[in-house]
Write a structure and sequence with these properties.
Elements (H helix, E strand, L loop, with lengths): L1 H47 L1 E2 L12 E4 L18 H4 L10 H6 L13 H4 L25 E7 L25 E2 L11 E5 L15 E4 L9 E2 L7 E2 L5 E6 L4 E5 L4 H7 L14
Parallel strand pairs: 3-6, 7-8
Antiparallel strand pairs: 1-2, 2-4, 3-5, 5-9, 9-10
Length: 281
């Protein structure tokens, strides 16, 4: 009997050990997915923080000072028909991982994103625009999408806001029709959100409009602001407990799904006279 009890104890210890081992592997994969996702957002932030060209004969200014327009400028096309900020961003991605410069060369910048000439690039999966922790894929193959979107402020129409003066309190970093100089971000670069990850309403990676630019919806029936994996929240949804977000100073930080709504509203605007600290800082 004692031998039987001893054997059962050993089996139980083995099962517990195996469970802890598998739990450790799972947690490691979750942590790795979050880190890779943060790296993708850092690369995108390097593109967004453009450098101003110095006068001829002088060294270029190294300090980033402007966020580019959210769509490729076009005199006739609506923002939804235009190419998105993601297209010029191809040139700043890691060419060792994917030859995105060649994909950029295949895009006709003078045509709508849905033009026949631009469909082959639209069907190409851009690795830097997919979250490694939850790499979803469009089953129809009509186009590939992005899981990272630029933040336009508060409201569905915030990408149409100008910069004043004064700067509208709902305005965010990205606008359809113009660049946003850092001087307009009076709330501070380190407390103003530039990009967020999402799993909701995913659309073509090279399309202007809501597939690549989003404002935070604060209406009564709006979905929750930020959620964990498989949530129906506006942002997040790729990792348990929250989501990665990039800020105008180039940093990438983890925000928990329990973040206070008033704090998040302050983080998505550039001049809302809000300097809410980011939780944990």
């Amino acid at each position: 009997m004692n031998r039987l009890i001893g054997a059962l104890v050993l089996v139980l210890i083995g099962l517990i050990g195996a469970g802890l081992f598998l739990t450790g592997i799972t947690q490691s994969r979750v942590d790795q997915g979050r880190l890779y996702c943060q790296n993708h957002l850092r690369i995108l932030s390097q593109f967004a923080a453009m450098h101003e060209n110095a006068p001829a004969g002088e060294n270029p200014v190294r300090a980033p000072n402007v966020i580019p327009p959210g769509t490729v400028p076009h005199a006739v096309l609506s923002p939804e028909q235009r190419l998105a900020w993601t297209v010029p961003a191809l040139l700043t991605m890691d060419q060792r991982t994917q030859d995105t410069a060649a994909i950029f060369a295949a895009v006709d910048l003078n045509q709508p994103w849905s033009a026949e000439h631009n469909l082959p690039p639209a069907r190409t999966r851009i690795l830097n625009l997919i979250c490694p922790g939850n790499p979803t894929q469009n089953a129809t193959q009509d186009f590939q999408w992005t899981q990272y979107v630029g933040i336009t402020g508060i409201g569905a129409d915030s990408a149409n806001l100008g910069l004043g003066p004064p700067v509208p309190p709902n305005a965010g970093c990205w606008r359809y029709d113009g660049a946003t100089p850092f001087s307009a971000i009076t709330d501070g670069l380190s407390s103003t959100m530039l990009f967020a990850e999402t799993t909701q309403q995913l659309g073509p990676w090279l399309a202007g409009g809501t597939p690549t630019l989003r404002g935070l919806l604060v209406t009564e029936n709006a979905p929750p602001f930020l959620g964990g994996i498989s949530s129906s929240s506006q942002f997040g949804g790729n990792h348990p407990g929250g989501g990665n977000c990039a800020f105008a100073d180039g940093s990438v930080r983890w925000l928990q799904s329990s973040i206070d709504g008033s704090v998040l509203r302050g983080l998505v605007t550039i001049a809302g006279d809000t300097h809410d600290p980011i939780p944990g800082e």
